[in-house]
Write a structure and sequence with these properties.
Helix content: 25-40%
CATH topology of the largest domain: Isopropylmalate Dehydrogenase
Number of domains: 2
Number of helices: 11
Strand content: 15-25%
Radius of gyration: 20 Å
Shape: globular
Order of helices and strands: EHEHHEHEEEEHEHEHEHEEHHH
Distance between the termini: 22 Å
Bound molecules: 3-isopropylmalic acid, magnesium ion
Amino acid sequence: MTQKTLKFAVLPGDGIGPEVMDVALAVLDKVCTPEGIKLESTFAYVGGAAIDAKGQALPQETLDTCAASDAILFGSVGGPKWENLPPNEQPERAALLPLRKAFKLFANIRPGLLYPELVDASPLRRDRIENGIDIVCIRELTGGIYFGQPKSTTELPDGDTEALDTMVYRKSEIERILKVAFETARTRKAKKVCSVDKANVLTTSVLWRKTATEFAKNYPDIELSHLYVDNAAMQLVRDPNQFDVFVTENMFGDILSDEMAVICGSLGMLASASLGVGKNSFGNAFGLYEPAGGSAPDIAGKNIANPCAQVLSAAMMLRYSFGLNALAEKIERAVRDTVTKGNIRTGDIAFGGQSVSTDVMQAEILKRL
Ligand code: IPM
Ligand code: MG
């Protein structure tokens, strides 16, 4: 057997980032080592931790470490300590946006998964989600109003102030994110893509909808539908499982993915992948993998954080950047069995029942691998 070496950058960041990252690394070691797969992870500072240590949320050496890797495993960034910095220097924006830009991470994949056993964690009524939730948000991540130029604030001659953002999309940008959505739908049972836009108002959305309609002809096996974003926001809380895969532009995806996260119960369970345009040395997508939950500074260092989202993000890394689908599934099964069959849960998903520490959760997941 040839020895495989998985080279990835580890950016734990702030708050609970470092403690849940430790769990993910232990899990990776447990599944990879017996298969003769070597892990070569390189630590780098990011976010508030990088501001403190290096004076910048995304130091050049962190970018260099990422560039020398096949994937990035990311923790979370931000916290009260850095909240009073100017917005552009705050850890979230100053670390994440340039990372996305630098590595052309255009495809953000956010699975919205709620196990049936955890439906009580969702704010939705039980009868709407009896069998859990299983949908996927595909968000365009490097275009649209986030990055469009010009962007400016101008003091006008009449004494007023004007701020400007530009929303811009190329057809080719829309096509490449549609491809991710349709390919994702192909791997799923329902085989449906819902394209979300605001084509009744925005020019970029008119192009988006037209492009989606044309593009769908390449995928006769997938059913395409369209929704305006306001309606999509409503449908998502009304009946989330009417969706299978939905695909949308950057800012709509930002908003809808948070909505999806909350209806899926605990943020501690949700993973994400942001895939780049190029291929890594495995011939797969270079990607950044991060939990949805954020740095949760209020519970950091207390050994109570839910490590599942970070562990599931590591599983996504194995799948998308290293092509190790079977190992990814093994991890996903172990996490699922731990919280469902094992009933081993951190406080965020215990519903007042017995809750365990991060360490115990780690031991229980490892035990099932
Ligand atoms: C996200 C976050 C980021 C975004 C922020 C922190 C810049 O909300 O990943 O969804 O808006 O994309
Ligand atoms: Mg967001």
